[in-house]
Specification:
The protein is α+β, with helices and mostly antiparallel strands. The protein has a single domain (about 15-240), classed as 3-Layer(aba) Sandwich (L-fuculose-1-phosphate Aldolase). About 40% of the residues lie in helices and about 15% in strands. Strands 4-3-2-1-5-8-7-6 form an eight-stranded mixed beta sheet, with helices on both faces. A two-stranded antiparallel ribbon has the order 9-10. A hairpin with a 3-residue loop joins strand 7 (about 170) and strand 8. Helix 3 (about 115-120) packs across helix 6 (about 185-205) and helix 6 (about 185-205) crosses helix 8. The longest helix has 23 residues, at about 185-205. The two termini are about 15 Å apart. About 35% of the residues are buried.
């Protein structure tokens, strides 16, 4: 059963497309095994506003989430400005402060996806520069060294936000990961490749053999190459469009 009735009127184009993209990310996360029960959160600042973000009502499994389900939740006090449902406390306490960082944190995704979360359980959780996939973002990861229990106080989210700084990925010690992006496509693309990089690193570590690090000069070269556009579009937008086409064939009601 849906927790929020479908709207009678379709919102403006930008707002509705933002909802569709955020719903797609929830469905894709289930397809990619990034979700964990009904917990974890994906949020997006509401277009053309400065005080609120989209959040799905607590209790929905991510494979149920539809574009019309999202509540609009106030950055300031977690008030529901539009929609109905439960605002899960950690979603507000973590995500609201991160959104207030600015455009880089327009979309905030927090998951306990298995391979990245496995690294957060290690004394040294760093993603290592040992392969092509991770080289483009290895210097964009902030590492939180403290685990302070459930984030039921906004101050905990503010502490996390201060640690992120100008990075766009965060490892939460003994916990999970956060990716940031100026839109859903960018944040989800980071999530996807982060998990792949962590998976391959763990596989390499499990061999027990010495890891081969890529030289700094090669890493800098690849990072300079990652800004390439294709037909005037970023690769993460093209990737997310492709993923949505998969959903359109398999699971199209995310757009409802």
């Amino acid at each position: 059963m849906k927790l929020v009735a479908k709207r009678n009127e379709v919102p403006d184009t930008a707002a509705w497309q933002a909802r569709v993209d955020l719903a797609a990310a929830h469905r894709l996360a289930v397809m990619h095994n990034f979700n964990e029960g009904i917990f974890n959160h994906m949020t997006l600042a509401v277009p053309n506003t400065t005080d609120r973000f989209y959040l799905n009502p607590f209790g929905l499994y991510w494979s149920e989430v539809r574009a019309s389900d999202f509540m609009e939740v106030a950055f300031k006090d977690a008030a529901i400005l539009e929609g109905n449902g439960i605002v899960e406390p950690t979603a507000y306490c973590i995500h609201a402060p991160l959104h207030e960082l600015g455009p880089k944190a327009n979309c905030v995704i927090h998951t306990h996806m298995p391979y990245a979360s496995a690294l957060t359980r290690l004394e040294d959780p760093r993603v290592l520069p040992i392969g092509q996939t991770e080289l483009g973002f290895v210097n964009q990861i902030a590492y939180d060294p403290e685990y302070n229990g459930l984030a039921h106080d906004r101050a905990e989210g503010e502490r996390m936000a201060s640690l992120v700084g100008d990075k766009n990925i965060m490892f939460l010690s003994n916990h999970g990961v956060v990716t940031l992006g100026h839109n859903v496509a960018e944040a989800y693309n980071r999530l996807y490749y982060l998990e792949r990089a962590c998976q391959v690193q763990l596989f390499a570590m499990w061999t027990g053999r010495k890891l081969k690090h890529v030289p700094d000069e090669t890493m800098k070269l690849l990072q300079a190459q990652t800004g390439t556009t294709y037909g005037g579009r970023k690769s993460y937008d093209l990737h997310f469009d492709a993923l949505k086409r998969v959903l359109d064939r398999k699971d199209p009601d995310y757009k409802d």
